[in-house]
Design goal:
alpha/beta
Amino acid sequence: MNKLITILMVSLALMAFKNDKPAYRIFDSKGKAVKYEKLVKEASDADVIFFGELHNNPISHWLQLELTKDLYDLKKDNLVLGAEMFEADNQLILNEYLTGSISGKSFENEARLWPNYETDYKPLVEFAKDNNLEFIASNIPRRYASVVFKNGWEGLDSISAQAKSYIAPLPIEYDPEVECYKKMTEGMPAMGGHSSATLPMAQAIKDATMAFNIAGYCDDNIIIHYNGAYHSDNFQGIIWYLNKYKPGLKILTISTVEQDSVKHLNEDNSGKADYTIAVSESMTKTH
């Protein structure tokens, strides 16, 4: 009788597990499922963490905040935040808000914030403010990336010295054969009279500027940087440039992918990063 009860209990437990619907799972670079605690432990030993998000994925944004909180518990004031979503010419106004010099209303009215700032990035900014942490507005002002897209590298010759102060030092080292840039032009026709060759250039000027701005904060700090996954997947993009501006850093990358099932990591998603967060593709979007 006891044996029968045991079998029944095991069967019920297996049925409950089978019917579970996890929203996400975390996998290492070899595609092995791991616990969140392992990610935190390894991240705490890094110099720079790139958290590659899908911009409208709520799991990305929730885990960004949770990881930031846990790293703060471990590193305190040595933690620095940074994000693609804030442009370098808004560093002053971001600093003014973080230090209480201006109101939140002034900051939100005057900074060029993304449409999903309120739900997805404001919690990170508020965490930095509440804990007196620095926050890097790492990205190039969009108008200058647009100059590169329209006119190539030569377009930057016409901008002012002050404008150039918001960009990585010129000339930018650029290799169109780097996979993340090469893929952007494969099979792509010229667009609106502009050569498709300038599209990856515009991406590269963003990556270079983010890397340059991150490099300036690396000494004696641990940095967590939030960016679209494409900017750091396959250890390219921002990382390609950061390794040139500040070689020898211990870098950890996180990517986010969406899959029909999160039971296993799909083969085409494996190896993109040190850790990959697989999220159910039916997950609600933030915008």
